[in-house]
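An instance follows:
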Amino acid sequence: MLSIIGLFTILIVVVLLISGKVSPIVGLVLVPIVGAFSAGFNFEQIGEFFTSGTQSVFSVAVMFIFAILFFGIMQDVGVFDPLIDKMISLTRGNVIAVAVGTVIIAAIAHLDGSGASTFLITIPALLPLYKKLKMSPYLLLMLVGTSASVMNMVPWAGPLGRTAAVLDMDVTELWRPLIKIQIIGLVLLIVLAVLLGLREKRRIAKNILADEKSMSADDSPELPVNVNQDQDTVAEKLLSRPKFYWVNVILAISVIGVLVWGVIPAGFAFMIGVSIALPINYPNIQDQMSRIKDHAPGAILMATIILAAGSFLGILNGTDMLNSIAKDLVTVLPAFIIPYLHIIIGVFGVPFDLLLSTDAYYFALLPIVDQVVTGFGVSSLSAAYAMIIGNIIGTFVSPLSPALWLALGLAGLEMGRHIRYSFMMMWGFSIVLLAIAVVIGVISI
C-alpha cells in the first residue's frame, strides 16, 4: 500500500508539472502531504519530514539566490559580451557549431562531478548566446544535462560512490571499464548535437520566415519597436562597466575557481562575490539596491521552488515511500524476466529517475537486483553497470534532482516543458548507450 501511495504521489506531481496547470510549488507541497496523510502519518510526523527535506536543500536555495544575483550583475556589467561575440565569430553564428560547443563545454565543466557547479558555470555563460542566435534554451539545458550525465560516471560523482558502497569495492576499479562508455557517449552526443543543431537551424529559419510574412502583412508603423530597442540598448550601456571589465572577469573567474575548489560553501562564495561586485561597479547605494531589486524576483521565486522540492523529497524519504517502491518493484515482475532484470531496469532507468531518488535507486533497488540476478550467473559488476548506464542519463530530467531546479532557475525555464522537450531524446540516448555497453562486453547478459 505504501508503494502504491508513493507511486501515485510521484505520478500526480509529474503530471501536474508536465501539464503546467498549477504552479510547481502547489504540486510539490500539497500532493505529498495528501499522500502522507493517506499512508497514515500525522501532521507532527509530516512536519519532521518537511524539516529534514528542506534542510537538505537549504544550502542549494541560498546558493541559488546569490548565484542569480552574482551572474545577473556580471551580465549587467558586460562580462559575457566578449565571450558571446567571440563564440559567434568563431562559429560565424553557426547553430550547429554552438550546439557541439555546448556539449564540450559542459563535459569540461562537469569534471568536478557537481551538477550544481556545472549549471552555474555553463548556463549563465551560454544562455545569452542562445538567445542572440534565437536558439531554444531548452536545447541548451538538454545538451548540458546529457553531457553532464555522461561525465557523471567519474568516481568522485555520486552514482559510482553509492554503487561502490553497495558492492563493497574500490570506486576507481568500478570506474575503469566505464571510461570507454564515457568516450563513446560523448562522441555520440556530439553527433546528436549536430543533428539537433540542423533541426534547430530549420526551426529558426522557419520562424524568421513566418515573422517576415507577419511584418509584411502588418500595416502598423515599425518606429515604436525600434525606439524600444534603442531604449534597451541605452539601458544596457548605462549598466555596463567597460573600464572595470578585467576586474569583473577576474572576480567571476575567482568565484568559479573557489566554487570548483570547494574550500568554502558555494552559497558563501557567491555571497562574497555579490558583496564585492556591487561596490566596485556601482558605488552609489541606490544603484546597488536597484541591481538587487532587478534580479531578486527570479531568484526568490526559484528558491521557493527548490525549498518546495526539498519538502517533497523529505516527505517521500521520511515516509519510506521511495524505498518501498524500489523493493516492491522486483516482487511484481514475472519470473521469466528475472534473469534479465538488470537489463530491464537499465532500459527503464530514465523513467525510474522520475520515480526514485538517487539514494533509493542505488541503496534500495540495486542491492535487490544484484541479489536476484547473481543467482542466475550474472556478475554483480554487470548488474551495476546496466543500472548505472541506463539510469545516469536521466539525472537531469527528473524533478527529484535539486541541481536541475537550479538550472531551470538560471535559464528561466519550466520543469514541465523541459521534461516534454528532453525526456524521450535522453531516454533514447540512454538505451543506445546501454546497448553499446552490452555489445562491447561491459555488460553481460
